[in-house]
Specification:
single chain; about 280 residues; alpha/beta; Rossmann fold; Pantoate--beta-alanine Ligase, Chain: A,domain 2; 2 domains; 6-stranded parallel sheet; 3-stranded antiparallel sheet; 10 helices; 9 strands; binds adenosine monophosphate
């Protein structure tokens, strides 16, 4: 595995590989790798000649009061895990390499940002879409791998690829969970021990709502209330949102049918966690 820190070198390598018609699987991450990331890498390994992993905590997608400084980082551990997944190139640029000066152009996401994390984190998806556009231009991936844990991000990037005619196939990968159901996240290490114990209720509440939905509960307000009650009973976390929308459009539903997402975000002492389930209603 080769570690690359400059855009120039990364682009030169990609140009050489592309001239040999190699397919490139790209997995963008913020590091502090866990099994969710490794699943994306594994899938990329199976489907492409080359695998490029990026590790970059992108300041552009963090709000001023968010956890950019506290975001966990451990490059040596990540490097070993990436080697284990047979990554070919680990792209690890410094912030100054990615943003040497204030951007003169920024990507603005116009649709689907008035809900869920887009609403709670103004500017977040502009930061994501901007960095992903840069990465796609640097790496020219054949396929790019994203986790459904960030389902809104998947929908936004699908829109970016489609609207800007980017020659990239997006592959969306299922959520990887701990044995107790908690969605794996780099941020889980910032839960207090007592919070970690009760955090599985986030997924349990989503499962309960999904079961009720399939048993015929048609009222989204009741389903949302059910989730809120379960979380409030088990945790001291502050619910940021619990919402139900069509997916991937992320529009409110008059009738619960088609593909829908039930999504939530909960703020704990030092960390805000998200989770979701996507299900089909006939
Ligand atoms: P992050 O490093 O948190 O930006 O995540 C990098 C990529 O890994 C994103 O596409 C995430 O959606 C994906 N990812 C993070 N956690 C999980 C998980 N538990 N299961 C599946 N994919 C995940």
């Amino acid at each position: 595995m080769k570690i690359i820190t400059t855009i120039k070198e990364m682009q030169a390598i990609i140009a050489a590989q592309k001239s040999q018609e190699k397919s490139i699987g790209f997995v963008p991450t913020m590091g502090f790798l866990h099994e969710g990331h490794l699943t994306l890498l594994n899938r990329a390994r199976q489907e492409n000649d080359l695998v490029v992993l990026s590790i970059f905590v992108n300041p552009l997608q963090f709000g001023p009061k968010e956890d950019y400084a506290e975001y966990p980082r451990d490059f040596e551990r990540d490097r070993a895990l990436a080697e284990g997944e047979k990554v070919d190139f680990l792209f690890y640029p410094a912030v100054e390499e990615m943003y040497p000066h204030e951007l003169s152009v920024k990507v603005t996401v116009q649709d689907r940002t008035d809900v869920l994390c887009g609403k709670s984190r103004p500017g977040h998806f502009d930061g994501v879409a901007t960095v992903i556009t840069k990465f796609f231009n640097i790496i020219s991936p054949t396929r790019a791998y994203f986790g459904k844990k960030d389902a809104q991000q998947v929908a936004v990037i699908e829109g970016l690829i489609s609207d800007f005619n980017m020659p990239v196939d997006l592959v969306a990968v299922d959520i990887v969970r701990e044995n107790d159901g908690l969605a794996k996240s780099s941020r889980n290490v910032n839960l207090l021990p007592q919070e970690r114990q009760v955090a599985p209720v986030l997924y349990q509440s989503l499962q309960a709502a999904e079961a009720a939905l399939h048993e015929g509960e048609q009222n989204p307000i009741k389903l949302i209330e059910m989730i809120r009650e379960m979380i409030n009973k088990e945790t001291n976390g502050e619910i940021d949102y619990v919402q139900i929308y069509s997916y991937p459009q992320l529009k409110p539903l008059e009738k619960l049918e088609g593909t829908i997402i039930i999504a939530l975000a909960v703020k704990f002492t030092k960390v805000r966690l998200i989770d979701n389930t996507i299900t089909n209603i006939d």
